Amino acid sequence: MFTLMVIYKLLISKNYDGYIINLADEHINEYVSPSDNLIEYVTHFTGSNGMALILKNGSSVLYTDSRYFIQAEKELSNDFKLKKMGIDENIYEYVQTIGGIKKIAINYKNISYSRLNDMRSKFEKNGVEIVHDDLTESIWPNKPERTYNEIIDLEKIKSNTFLDVNSNENITGSNYMDKINKLREKLSDDQVFILSELDSISWLFNLRGSDIDYNPVFYAYSIISNDKAIIFIDREIERKDVEIKKYSEFYDFLKGVEATRVFVNSRCNAFIVTELGEKKVEVSDLIGELKSQKNEIELKGFELAHINDGISLCSLFEWMENNIGKTEKEIADKLEEYKRMLPGFISPSFDTISAYGPNAAIVHHRASETVVESKNLFLIDS
């Protein structure tokens, strides 16, 4: 309740009728690190999809999808009411029902430009203005620091280290400058491409990290033009012909970008677009087009990953047949143990869902101490 009181006071002082918190960081990642999860801090909800609306009149609601209905009902703070997407009235209908709402703030850095556009147009039909304001520091004074882990340079790993190929190429099958030059072919001299999506930056520069759990990415931004390639990152990396700047310098640098046309991905945060000027920004997934064209080395990597995953699951099933009575968590841990035995494994891509009996109805169930027996269904998703 104390956190909500802080928000109510901020709304009054800034003359806002409400504040929206979207479950996202400024890179609009599918997974959000604990240091960026303002939704969890304010509402106690730990799912991966949610949007909270706090109104000055004391109404506080959280919207999430059907994967998290059961989980949200268990976790939500008593100060929040659950709104079920696709069942209850949507956020626009809810605000209209409340009445008297004229101005709602949201942090533009934590919502994609395409989603903000849709939100603004729908709210404006009801006479509600959407404005940018980042209240995070005021709401969350002891916000934890982000984790910055080691960067892996894929240019230094040969493809034949893990794959059965007669090649001396790196494990990606392509040099980072080749990728940058292919991207440049899509740009004219007065155009730039701004990357804020961590997976795209990792792919373009042939680098991997682990700053966010279950994701081989690192915090960075990048700007590509025909004469410059810039990466904003707080780690030391070796990349010839690439200008390396501090991560914290990105938004200041953005103010000086001069181009007749700026291309961004559909997941680009709305603050970047509004800072550049919406009229000269074009949403176009130039990187996605290049990423979708897989080379021989990448296809071999897919094949190996599927084979190794199958081996791990077969090993687990045999182990389970001889170890009835283990817990959900023990089974999940054993599967990861088998995966780690095989070459090329780095980490799981998500927290293994190991669920017995009624727990299998919880879509994103977290493995517990529930004992798995042979008299009910057992679900595993890894």
Automatic annotation (TrEMBL):
One of its GO terms (cellular component) is cytoplasm. Pfam families: Creatinase_N, Creatinase_N_2, Peptidase_M24. Residues 313-382 form the Peptidase M24 domain. Residues 23-126 form the Creatinase N-terminal domain. This is M24 metallopeptidase. InterPro entries: Creatin/AminoP/Spt16_N, Creatinase/aminopeptidase-like, Creatinase_N, Pept_M24, X-Pro_aminopeptidase_P. It comes from the Eukaryota.
